[in-house]
Design goal:
The structure is a single chain. By secondary structure, this protein is of the alpha/beta class. The protein is built from twelve helices and nine strands. The protein has an eight-stranded mixed beta barrel with strand order 1-2-4-5-6-7-8-9, surrounded by four helices. It binds ligand C2E and calcium ion (2 copies). One calcium ion (CA) binds next to strand 6. Ligand C2E binds next to strand 2, helix 3 and strand 6.
Length: about 290
């Protein structure tokens, strides 16, 4: 009734009980997952479109469920938001990424920076800034080694609160990236107000490149707009050589997608870095605690 708005009577349906029961079960499993260390973080590299050199990576959370195997985030993040566990899971992800940054630094692995995804409810929770500050202090992470990814929908809702939080993130020196750019609100005013360091062109615009003429025009316009405002652009979901050539040709600076690498656990990522370094004939130090 609440969803349908006032004045819309609804009759009880037994299926509702089933929905509620399965949601409660999921909630309980999420609590157990936190207690039993069932989450893990995978990392997906972004490379310079011109040189192919690694610039940064995105940290993506996974749930290794004892019965169901690897559960993708889109299957549990919305539930975690609904039952109030998102801050807990988000804090765990941020601390795990910061601990990994510290390990890579000790091992002399050049990783650039690590971007963490922050969802709407996490963004608005007071805990986020405390979590970031303490994780950075505990693991000796510098602001330029971490990055925050937010969708434009998050930035556009309750703009005054968003502004305050973004200002605090700026004060911490943390770069902001706008995720799924172009899929939320069409207001471009926030680019001016919030000064993100990066925008990420959504996979839906990249998928049909270079054949789709609308996508070509849209992506080119986004790249030009960002360049004129001094904002870096990352294209997401790059899967083919043709997409890569087109994006490089129009001046898109950074590429991320299966063509370069799938998201992988830290050790797989280290192999990626070593392989790239080997290809450039660079000599990397041996890891101390890989
Ligand atoms: P996103 O931030 O847009 O993440 C990109 C998604 O695209 C990832 O899916 C990634 O695995 C996938 N991807 C990357 N390259 C390619 C490609 O070339 N082709 C295709 N088809 N897909 C590609 P994933 O890991 O399942 O994440 C889905 C969404 O879940 C993310 O979308 C993000 O919104 C959310 N998410 C992931 N990790 C976290 C987290 O730690 N915290 C929060 N709050 N949200 C997260
Ligand atoms: Ca993201
Ligand atoms: Ca995205």
């Amino acid at each position: 009734v609440k969803v349908a708005g006032k004045g819309h009577p609804r009759f009880f349906q037994p299926e509702l009980c089933e929905t509620i029961r399965s949601r409660r079960e999921l909630e309980q499993s999420l609590v157990a997952a936190l207690e039993q260390d069932q989450f893990l973080v995978v990392y997906q590299p972004r490379v310079d479109a011109m040189s192919g050199q690694l610039c940064s990576m995105e940290a993506l959370v996974r749930w290794h469920h004892p019965q169901h195997g690897m559960v993708p985030p889109l299957e549990f993040i919305p539930a975690a938001e609904q039952c109030g566990l998102i801050s807990e899971i988000g804090a765990w992800t941020i601390r795990t990424a910061c601990a990994q940054i510290a390990r890579w630094k000790r091992s002399g692995i050049s990783f650039g920076s690590v971007a963490v995804n922050v969802s709407a409810l996490e963004f608005r929770s007071h805990r986020l800034l405390d979590t970031l500050t303490s994780a950075m202090a505990d693991f000796g992470v510098q602001p330029h080694e971490l990055e925050i990814e937010l969708t434009e929908t998050v930035l556009m809702t309750d703009t005054d609160t968003s502004q305050v939080i973004v200002d605090r993130l700026h004060a911490l020196g943390l770069p902001l990236a706008v995720d799924d750019f172009g899929t939320g609100y069409s207001s471009l005013a926030y680019l001016k107000r919030l000064h993100p360091a990066k925008i990420k062109i959504d996979r839906s615009f990249v998928r049909d490149l270079p054949d789709d003429s609308d996508d070509r025009v849209l992506v080119q316009a986004i790249v030009q707009l960002a360049a004129a405002m001094g904002i870096q652009v990352i294209a997401e979901g790059v899967e083919t050589q043709a997409q890569r050539s087109f994006l490089h040709g129009i001046g898109c600076g950074l590429l991320q997608g299966y063509l370069i690498s799938r998201p992988q656990e830290a050790d797989g990522f280290e192999r990626f870095v070593r392989q790239r370094a080997f290809e450039r004939n660079a000599v990397l130090p041996e890891p101390i605690d890989a």
